[in-house]
From TrEMBL:
InterPro entries tied to this protein: Class-I_Pyr_Nuc-Dis_Oxidored, FAD/NAD-bd_sf, FAD/NAD-binding_dom, FAD/NAD-linked_Rdtase_dimer_sf, Pyr_nuc-diS_OxRdtase, Pyr_nucl-diS_OxRdtase_dimer
Assigned EC number: 1.-.-.-
Cofactor: FAD
Alphabetically ordered keywords of this record: FAD, Flavoprotein, NAD, Oxidoreductase
Residue ranges occupied by any FAD/NAD(P)-binding domain in the UniProt entry: 10-327
Enzyme class: oxidoreductase
Gene3D superfamilies reported in the protein's UniProt record: 3.30.390.30, FAD/NAD(P)-binding domain
Protein name per the record: NAD(P)/FAD-dependent oxidoreductase
MF term (GO), any: oxidoreductase activity
Length: 479
């Protein structure tokens, strides 16, 4: 039985309490706006329990061991297997054991009201929340509703897949034991990271990649170096191959994967790392004349086009499906909501103002935590050329940098910067190699701030560090 209650009015209603929704709520409350936040699962969202935190907790011991094995005087001490139980316990701790008490306490500390249940739009500035016990709450917003519901893993509609108990990223990051044989479908970030983890923990990994390389959204050499390392670690990577069917008789039994070539593979688990879809299918979008299940198109303040009150922040707007970019958008959207609520005119044409998500167009950073790491920001060479820029790609061997040689014996890596020849600024940077994730923010600053090459020349990297690669790239460019 549904128990209806009278509507409760807030300045802002946020649907989705992951990192993005939490940040929108925080910004709204900081501006003095009353705020409700709605969540149907765990407060803290995908990143905290099934994505960023558990996956990186799993990867850190794997990469640390690999780094140690390349250091003289230490390599002989780390030749044994990883302590699987300790690795999984480390993961569990970083996922807060799938309990959200700490996240709830934080939201309560900023003064946001939490509603547990499924939130749906019911009209302009109106949201209903159906709780786990069937209780319905009706919320209205004076100023804004922010949709921060994120995205979900897409599993292709293959014969047998619905009954095969397949893995998505959620199962891959939260599994309680190592599968003997793991098939990974897809060669993107989730695919390569999970192949790295489970392969290092003892699984026999087979990767089925429809395209011709891994990490297709990065420079080709990134995927090549990661593929070489995965193959060296024992993974069987098959390019130009797709899964055509999946069959499993019981939840814990073996799974048979039919390939489009007519062959078949038997494994203990199969992970589909084949993309994401917006979690907007059960959001009530039709009540405000938007298409259910669609990505939501927004302006640079993250306001949904054609509305004056609805915001879509994070994955749902499809601008950059990354937690750090979603939190960046949340800061922008929160500031814009507050300014509009207070009647402060927004400088819509100020691309570097507090109310414009400029970086989502040109300076999106990402790190892939494999061994070697791959990191990029901005445009690849192909993307820059396709956009019509007159560019030059400047490449350098990372292993030739003194700091890299000290970091690891036999260091292998590569760096590339994409120079806009007309403006002499950087449009993109890519690094691949052990320990390069921490290099990326310097590249992000250079790309986002459009620092001229002539000024970058005076940003002297410390010797001997891996960051000396900046000097080598600039020397190569200047000739």
């Amino acid at each position: 039985m549904t128990h209806a209650v009278e509507p409760v009015e807030y300045d802002v209603v946020v649907i989705g309490a992951g990192p993005v929704g939490e940040n929108v709520a925080d910004r709204a409350r900081s501006a003095g706006l009353s705020t409700a936040i709605v969540e149907s699962e765990l407060i803290g969202g995908e990143c905290s329990y099934w994505a960023c935190m558990p996956s990186k907790a799993l990867l850190r011991p794997v990469v640390a061991r690999a780094d140690a094995r390349r250091v003289p005087g230490l390599s002989g001490s780390v030749q044994g297997p990883l302590d699987t139980a300790a690795v999984l316990a480390h993961r569990d701790a970083y996922a807060s054991h799938w309990k959200d008490d700490g996240q709830v306490a934080w939201l309560e500390s900023i003064g946001a009201d939490i509603y547990r249940g499924v939130g749906r739009l019911t009209g302009t500035k109106a949201v209903s929340v159906t709780g786990p016990d069937g209780t319905e709450h009706r919320l209205t917003a004076r100023h804004a509703v922010a949709v921060c519901t994120g995205s979900r893993a897409v599993v292709p509609d293959l014969p047998g897949v619905a009954d095969a108990f397949v893995w998505t990223s959620r199962e891959a990051t939260s599994a309680k034991k190592v599968p003997g044989r793991l098939v990974v479908v897809g060669g993107g970030v989730v695919g390569v990271e999970m192949a790295t983890v489970w392969g290092a923990l003892g699984a026999e990994v087979t990767m089925l990649v429809r395209g011709t390389g891994l990490l297709p959204r990065m420079e080709p050499f990134a995927g090549e170096l990661v593929a070489e390392a995965l193959t060296g670690a024992g993974a069987d990577i098959r390019f130009g191959v797709s899964a055509a069917s999946v069959r499993r008789q019981a939840p814990v039994g073996p799974v048979t994967v039919g390939l489009d070539s007519g062959e078949s593979i038997e494994a203990d688990e199969i992970l589909f790392a084949t993309g994401r879809a917006p979690r907007t299918d059960d959001l009530g979008l039709e009540t405000v004349h938007l298409k259910p299940g669609s990505w939501l198109t927004v302006d640079d303040s993250c306001r949904v086009e054609g509305t004056g009150w609805l915001y879509a922040v994070g994955d749902v707007n499809h601008r950059a499906l990354l937690t750090h970019q979603g939190k960046y958008q949340a800061r922008i959207a929160g500031a814009a909501i507050a300014a509009r609520a207070q009647g402060v005119p927004l400088l819509e044409t100020d691309r570097w103002g507090a109310h414009a998500a400029t970086a989502d167009h040109a300076a999106v950073p990402q790190v892939v935590f494999t061994d070697p790491e791959a990191a990029s920001v901005g445009l690849t060479l192909a993307e820059a050329e396709q956009a019509g820029h007159r560019v030059r790609a400047v490449d350098h061997d990372l292993g030739a940098v003194a700091g890299a040689g000290l970091y690891a014996d036999g260091y292998r890596g590569r760096a590339r910067m994409i120079v806009d020849l007309d403006r002499e600024i950087l449009l993109g940077v890519t690094f691949v190699g052990p320990g390069i994730g921490e290099l990326l923010h310097s590249a992000t600053i250079a790309v986002a701030a459009e620092v001229p090459i002539e000024r970058l020349w005076h940003a002297v990297p410390a010797y001997p560090t891996i960051s000396e690669i900046w000097l080598r790239l600039l020397e190569t460019y200047r000739g």
